[in-house]
């Protein structure tokens, strides 16, 4: 069924370990139960990022701009780290469904080792290329020193960003959503406490400015890293260095990257779409339009926390049942996910009709920006139905080890449908036309993903 698990079965490993209850019982109840901790964890992550932005903004425009220049690098490293973790989660969830505990240990342990190799490369390359990279990104001589202050610390301790997602994904793939939530919440709490102390120098702490923001993040993430390693090893017993031979490790890395590399490509697609959308909106409506989508997307992120949490819950449910060859339960999970996406999207759209403007006023007093943000929410939240379905079907394909369809959906959908419709929308209706084009494109790709999942899964 899938090569790497078949190889381990040839070694005579016992496949009769006790099955997790995800293989029996109500699929909708499993998905909803597993979603709640993930949604809460994603909320913690949003608060984490907003806290950094809030306290750094008090340092002035240059400091805030410096953090802005770090985002592309942080997002790219995060995409690669997430790709590794998605590859590990896919293999581990199917191994658990198949009852192969030894393979689960190998995937988790070798995924951590692979992330450490990636860390060393990122750290060394990053530290020696800061001037060139951030100058190329547009950092001027006044801002560049601030960027380097932040990124020197970030590159030196990048391990605390890269390793935890692998461990968290392995725990989620095992069906444990609560411990990753505890880790994310702990990180957020410590970051909220440390940001004002280290950035602005309250109490006995020195005022470190943007370096304080980096240190607060590193300390909070370090606590999270040790916590997630503790849970992975002492609770799930997934870290083991008992290796039959080097071939086992190489097989694990090959299996992880076979899924991880396509996943990285997919994770970079939203960044490409966001960059093009920003450029189109700027040319159509100027600063007001760009500010409008900034406010709108910030508000939209709260709606997408729920879809993100459900997406994470689909991994263990689909993966374990696929590994156990209970395909009817996989198809039931797919059917439920599609219905949930449609109902949830309609509810969010209906709520946005009266609430879009009042919520937008929380972030800005500019009347034109409030109006532009409201249009963004009205149009994009309707299109979110298609985007959610696409994301969930993509995650399902990745989980069962068929990432080629995930890449096709996202790359072809973004480049061949969504972006061209955005350009047509600009020609037809300016700012609102761009949003409508993107929304229609997302709905079309969502419909395509349903059809593709039924024929290829």
What keyword list fits this structure?
457 residues, mainly alpha, 12 helices, 85% helix, globular
Describe this structure in words.
This protein is mainly alpha-helical and 457 residues long. It has one domain. Helices cover 85% and strands 0% of the residues.
> How many domains, in number, for the residues?
1
Poorly predicted runs are 1-20
- Per DSSP E runs of 2 or more residues, the count of β-strands stands at 0
Form type: globular
- What Rg do the Cα atoms give? 22 Å
Number of helices: 12
Give me the secondary-structure topology.
Layout: H1 3-10, H2 27-57, H3 61-98, H4 101-136, H5 144-156, H6 159-173, H7 178-200, H8 210-235, H9 246-323, H10 327-360, H11 367-399, H12 403-456
Helix pairs in contact: 2-7, 2-9, 3-4, 3-5, 3-6, 3-9, 4-5, 4-6, 4-9, 5-8, 6-8, 7-8, 9-10, 9-11, 9-12, 10-11, 11-12
In short:
With 457 residues, this protein is mainly α. The chain has helices at 3-10, 27-57, 61-98, 101-136, 144-156, 159-173, 178-200, 210-235, 246-323, 327-360, 367-399, 403-456.
């Amino acid at each position: 069924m899938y090569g790497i698990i078949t190889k381990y079965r040839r070694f005579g490993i016992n496949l009769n370990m006790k099955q997790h209850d995800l293989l029996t019982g109500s699929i909708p109840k499993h998905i909803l139960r597993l979603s709640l901790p993930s949604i809460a964890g994603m909320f913690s992550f949003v608060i984490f990022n907003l806290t950094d932005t809030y306290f750094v903004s008090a340092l002035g425009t240059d400091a805030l701009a410096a953090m802005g220049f770090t985002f592309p690098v942080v997002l790219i490293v995060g995409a690669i780290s997430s790709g590794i973790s998605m590859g590990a989660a896919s293999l581990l969830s199917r191994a658990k469904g198949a009852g192969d505990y030894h393979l689960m240990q190998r995937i988790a342990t070798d995924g951590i080792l692979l992330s450490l190799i990636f860390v060393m490369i990122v750290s060394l390359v990053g530290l020696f290329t800061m001037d060139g990279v951030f100058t190329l990104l547009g950092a001027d001589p006044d801002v560049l020193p601030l960027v380097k202050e932040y990124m020197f610390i970030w590159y030196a301790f990048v391990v605390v960003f890269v390793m935890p997602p692998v461990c968290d994904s392995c725990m989620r793939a095992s069906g444990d959503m609560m411990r990753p939530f505890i880790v994310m919440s702990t990180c957020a709490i410590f970051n909220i406490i440390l940001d004002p102390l280290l950035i602005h120098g309250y109490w006995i702490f020195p005022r470190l400015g943007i370096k304080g923001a980096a240190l607060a993040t590193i300390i909070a993430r370090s606590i999270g890293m040790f916590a997630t390693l503790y849970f992975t090893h002492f609770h799930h017993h997934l870290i083991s260095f008992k290796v039959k031979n080097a071939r086992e490790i190489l097989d694990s890395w090959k299996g992880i990257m076979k899924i991880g590399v396509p996943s990285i490509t997919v994770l970079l697609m939203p960044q490409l779409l966001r960059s093009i959308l920003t450029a189109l909106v700027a040319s159509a409506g100027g600063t007001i339009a760009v500010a409008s989508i900034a406010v709108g997307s910030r508000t939209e992120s709260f709606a997408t926390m729920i879809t993100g949490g459900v997406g994470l819950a689909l991994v263990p449910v689909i993966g374990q049942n696929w590994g156990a060859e209970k395909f009817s339960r996989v198809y039931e999970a797919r059917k439920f996910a599609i219905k949930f996406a449609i109902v949830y999207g309609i509810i969010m759209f209906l709520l946005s009709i009266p609430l879009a403007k009042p919520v937008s006023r929380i972030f800005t007093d500019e009347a034109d920006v409030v109006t532009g943000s409201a249009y963004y929410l009205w149009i994009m939240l309707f299109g979110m139905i298609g985007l959610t379905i696409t994301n969930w079907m993509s995650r399902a394909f990745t989980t069962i080890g068929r990432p080629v369809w995930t890449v096709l959906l996202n790359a072809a959908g973004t480049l061949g449908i969504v972006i061209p419709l955005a350009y047509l929308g600009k020609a037809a209706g300016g700012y609102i036309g761009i949003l409508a084009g993107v929304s229609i494109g997302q709905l079309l790709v969502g419909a395509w993903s349903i059809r593709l999942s039924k024929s290829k899964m």
